[in-house]
Each structure stands twice: as structure tokens, then as C-alpha cells.
Specification:
The chain has about 140 residues and is an all-alpha fold. The chain is built from 6 helices and no strands. Helix 2 runs antiparallel to helix 6. Pfam families: Hormone_1.
């Protein structure tokens, strides 16, 4: 996977030990790392005439969801900063980090099934990290 080089905690117990700010940073890095590869993947599958319209639609939907999720996490980050929950050290990070050329080239050379496997893996990580972050920010959720 093109994100394999990113240091991410192995398992929930390790992720729970990471400070909120670092966890938020990690979420944004993972989401940003998928922005460009998903765009290329969408372009790639559009040229496959044999794919059903449903598959094309799902791929575009996933790409849009990643973009919306990244935007949502950035808004939550801004709110957390304004409330003093985390510092402002994350400013500007999301637009510049995670988009290195080598990562994007590696993602472009993966087979479709590998690409989807890696995307699913990273999506599960982001989902887990967001749950942990939510529990830390809103402890009354009884997590």
C-alpha cells in the first residue's frame, strides 16, 4: 500500500495512547494521502467501458466521501483549536503533507484489487481513530 510507510499505531490499544493532536494529525495525513490516488483511480475506471455504471458511481461516491470527510475533520480540528482542546500546530498541514510524488506513483501502479484493499485498510484505520478521538472529546458517550 502506498501509505505503508506512514507510521500508524498497530491496534486500538496503541492508538488510544496517542495524544489527541497527534491522532488528529494522523487522520488528516491518511485522508490527504488518498486524495490524489482516488482522483487517478476515478479517471482510470472511467476508461473501462466494460464496468457497470454502478461501479463507476460507487467509485466517484467514495472519492467524494473522502473529500467530505477530510473537510469535516479539518472543521472539527478548527473547532478543537478554538476551544483550546488542541494547539494550532496542525494549521496548514493538511494541504501540504501526505501528497509526495513517490506515494502517488506507487498508488497509481497498484492493481485495482490491491488499491481497494489498501483503501479499505486505511478507511478502517481512520474510522477507528475518529471513534477514539470522539470518545476523548465527548467522554459522556460512554466509550
Amino acid at each position: 500500500c502506498h501509505t505503508s510507510g506512514m507510521l500508524t499505531p498497530n491496534g486500538k490499544e496503541y492508538a488510544q495512547k496517542i495524544p489527541r493532536e497527534e491522532l488528529t494529525h494522523l487522520i488528516l495525513k491518511l485522508l490527504q494521502a488518498w486524495k490524489e490516488p482516488l482522483s487517478h483511480f476515478n479517471q482510470h475506471i472511467e476508461h473501462h467501458q466494460e464496468l457497470p455504471d454502478d461501479s463507476l458511481s460507487k467509485a466517484k461516491q467514495i472519492s467524494n466521501m473522502v473529500h467530505e470527510l477530510k473537510t469535516g475533520v479539518e472543521k472539527v480540528t478548527e473547532k478543537m483549536q478554538s476551544m483550546g482542546i488542541i494547539s494550532n500546530s496542525l494549521n496548514g498541514m493538511a494541504s501540504s503533507e501526505g501528497t509526495s510524488l513517490s506515494i502517488n506513483n506507487e498508488a497509481n501502479m497498484m492493481s485495482d484489487s490491491d488499491f481497494i484493499h489498501c483503501f479499505r485498510r486505511d478507511s478502517n484505520k481512520v474510522q477507528s481513530y475518529l471513534k477514539i478521538l470522539k470518545c476523548r472529546i465527548v467522554p459522556e458517550n460512554s466509550c
